Amino acid sequence: MTLASPKPNLLASGQSRCGSQHATNEDAFLSMPEAGLFAVADGMGGHSDGGLASRSIIEMLQMVIQEAKSLRDGTSLVEDGLRSVATALWREGQGRPVPVIVGSTVAAIYVADGYAVCLWVGDSRIYLSRQGELFMLSRDHNVANLEGTPDVVGSRGAMLTRAVGASETVEIDRVVVPLEASDTLLLCTDGLTKVVDDVAIGSMLDGNLDGLAARLVALAAVAGARDDVTVVTVRYEG
């Protein structure tokens, strides 16, 4: 767990837990309040080297954001970095004797100048809690959410339609949100949202930020999470 406030207007906490059915944790996260950048990444289960993919994304983000000089500049650096690592992971997988997918989801928030730029690929999510209301800012890239696709439930509906490393190029969705004092942002892998509903998540986000990420991860464990669970929470103090 991390808790820091190098910027006077940002407080953050992060926590990750290996799933009960996994030998290793294939999630990774980044919490850099001093740079305004936060992210979670979930290595694709059932594929090769999901942990390598998620770590590669986080290491890339940590490196590129050091050069950011403005909201627009930081956003471009993050997007260009994700495209670069997507190509590298794709080539890594395709260059093996038996080609494989080395991929990961990602959800990232870059905060600067009173705005949060939300960027994501896959089904890791971004939420905003504001004055007691919870808003889901991201939209899962899965079969169930394909435009024109009838409602699909179960494992087929949850199948990813987009991931970093699943193809040589990647399409990144973006939402920009003006922030208000006391807003709380949540990034999480689907290990949390598979077992904890939005009502329960929302009820926790208005509380004390100290240890909040750890409490959310513990809630998922109590709910029987078998997948890796990773959470980053960010509070904007205005």
In CATH's first tier, which class applies? Alpha Beta
Mean pLDDT: 91
Q: Poorly predicted ranges (pLDDT <50, ≥5 residues)?
A: 1-6
| Ends apart, CA distance between termini | 24 Å
**How many strands appear in the DSSP assignment?**
11
Oligomeric state of shown chains: single chain
In CATH, what is the homologous superfamily? PPM-type phosphatase domain
Overall geometry:
globular
User: So how many helices?
Assistant: 6
Q: Sheet bearing the most strands, described? A: 6 strands, antiparallel
- Give Rg in angstroms: 17 Å
Outline the secondary-structure elements.
Blueprint: E1 2-4, E2 10-17, E3 27-32, E4 37-43, H1 50-64, H2 71-94, E5 104-112, E6 115-121, E7 125-130, E8 133-136, H3 154-157, E9 173-178, E10 183-188, H4 190-193, H5 198-205, H6 212-222, E11 229-236
Antiparallel strand pairs: 1-2, 2-11, 3-4, 4-5, 5-6, 6-9, 7-8, 7-10, 10-11
Helix pairs in contact: 1-2
Explained architecture:
The chain is of the alpha+beta class and 238 residues long. It has a single domain, classed as Phosphatase 2c, domain 1. The chain has helices at residues 50-64, 71-94, 154-157, 190-193, 198-205, 212-222; strands at residues 2-4, 10-17, 27-32, 37-43, 104-112, 115-121, 125-130, 133-136, 173-178, 183-188, 229-236. It has a 6-stranded antiparallel beta sheet with strand order 1-2-11-10-7-8. A 5-stranded antiparallel beta sheet has the order 3-4-5-6-9, with helices on one face. The longest helix has 24 residues, at 71-94. It is globular. The chain starts with a strand and ends with a strand. The model is unreliable at 1-6 (pLDDT under 50).
